[in-house]
UniProtKB/TrEMBL annotation:
UniProt keyword annotation of RNA-binding present: no
Domain FAD dependent oxidoreductase, chain residue ranges per copy: 7-397
UniProt keyword terms in alphabetical order: Oxidoreductase
Pfam families in the record: DAO
Family annotation (InterPro entries): FAD-dep_OxRdtase, FAD/NAD-bd_sf
Highest taxon listed in the record's lineage: Bacteria
Protein name, per record: FAD-dependent oxidoreductase
Organism: Pseudoxanthomonas putridarboris
């Protein structure tokens, strides 16, 4: 057969695919990354770049279903379900609703915290060892509140998070206003998670690609993958640029994974959760820490190179429109909290699809029934935060090495 034969093919050139490629190269495997557009052009590009062990609690929590139903007909709500006939989404929502209880919340929080803590430490090590130029800063993240009742609720939740090794510091409103001159008067309080960090995600992904290439990995951009077939001794991948054959393949396609793996008779319960962001030049007064404006679910991240407002969760399928109502909600939320809520110039208005599973845990491991096919998808809102741990775990599983933590909670078989 006249086509390239590779060791490991990685389908998807976002943070997850490239982190997996890097870890595989360091484990001694050869890698070719296949990316349909440019590396980092999907959900890795425009998110807020926070590295957040603090986000261990899943979206599925007691009370979320009732709140979501109240917001269903509010187009600028932080969590929005676009009314439509979509049987796959409604099945997903039924499973999601079944997990909105304390027992399931604790199970997902435990598994997410393990992955996030490993990734947080590993990412810092990667930044240093590989000299990743991505504006990585270990400064913590603040949850900021104007609503006193919501503030007290999260203070109580922080006590539960300490069981999972997630430390926090609590400020009353006046103390936080003295601590953080970028906020307006009238804050009810704030919670700081000192173990969190931040980076510029587009630069992080570009730096991962640089290191992968430097270690001998191949990255084919503008290479759309059109199909995949399992072979007894490997896989055959059909692309717009011809066939590629590999000993193993890792599918890291984020929210596009379910459609792609259907040809392998795999059913992957991932729904696209649409998020938005606006990137500006830096205002003159900026927050000292990355922050989440909790009453409005708006994330604020500051870098030397810019300033970003982001977040919201919209279940509208693969709707490719840039919704001005959702973008306006980000700026309106920021104006309630910040002295300078936007920068002098808006550089980019963006959306991306987060790959959401109903238990808020990724699928990491061998695809059921396919010896040489591996899945690394479903990281929800935490793909950047979980990328380093995911990459190392996938490399350990593929090379049959003992992982740093138990991979059982993330196994794709749980959805079979």
């Amino acid at each position: 057969m006249n086509f390239p034969h590779d060791d490991v093919l990685v389908i998807g050139g976002g943070a997850i695919g490239l982190a997996t490629a890097l870890a595989l190269l360091e484990a001694g495997r050869g890698v070719r990354v296949l990316e349909s557009a440019a590396v980092g052009g999907g959900a890795s590009h425009g998110n807020c770049g926070t590295i957040t062990p603090s986000h261990a609690p899943p979206l599925a929590a007691p009370g979320v279903v009732a709140q979501a139903l109240r917001w269903m007909f509010t187009p600028d709500a932080p969590l929005y379900l676009k009314p439509r006939f979509d049987p796959a989404l409604w099945r997903w929502l039924l499973h999601f609703a079944a997990r909105c209880n304390l027992r399931s919340w604790r199970q997902s929080t435990q598994a997410r915290s393990v992955l996030l803590e490993d990734s947080r430490a590993r990412l810092a090590e990667w930044v240093q060892r590989h000299a990743l130029d991505c504006e990585f800063v270990e400064e913590g993240l603040d949850y900021v509140f104007r609503d006193a009742r919501r503030f007290r609720h999260y203070v109580d939740e922080c006590a539960a998070l300490r069981e999972f090794g997630i430390d926090s510091q609590v400020f009353d409103g006046s103390a936080y206003e003295r601590e953080e001159p970028a906020v307006l008067p009238g804050m009810a309080g704030a919670i700081r998670f000192p173990g969190d960090a931040r980076l510029r995600p587009d630069r992080y992904v570009a730096e991962l690609a640089r290191v992968v290439r430097g270690k001998g990995g191949r990255i084919e951009e503008q290479c759309r993958v059109e199909g995949i077939r399992s072979l007894p001794d490997g896989v055959l991948v059909e692309t717009a640029n011809g066939q590629r054959r590999g000993r193993d393949v890792v599918i890291a396609l984020g929210a596009w994974t379910p459609a792609f793996v259907r040809s392998l008779d795999l059913r992957v319960p991932i729904q696209p959760g649409k998020g938005y962001s606006i990137t500006y030049s830096r205002p003159s007064v900026v927050p000292r820490h990355a922050m989440v404006l909790k009453d409005r679910s708006v994330c604020v991240t500051v870098w030397d190179s810019g300033f970003r407002l982001g977040s919201t969760m919209e279940f509208s399928g693969h709707d490719g429109t840039l919704n001005p109502t959702r973008l306006a909600a980000l700026e309106r939320g920021a104006r309630e909290y910040l002295r300078e809520p936007v920068g002098p110039q808006a550089h980019e208005r963006w959306y991306g699809w987060r790959p959401m599973t109903w238990d808020d845990l990724p699928l990491l491991g061998r695809a059921p029934g396919h010896r040489h096919v591996w899945l690394a998808a479903g990281h929800g809102m935490l793909g950047i935060s979980m990328s380093a741990a995911t990459g190392q775990l996938m490399a350990d599983l593929i090379t049959d090495r003992k992982p740093a933590f138990d991979p059982t909670p993330y196994r794709p078989e749980r959805f079979s």
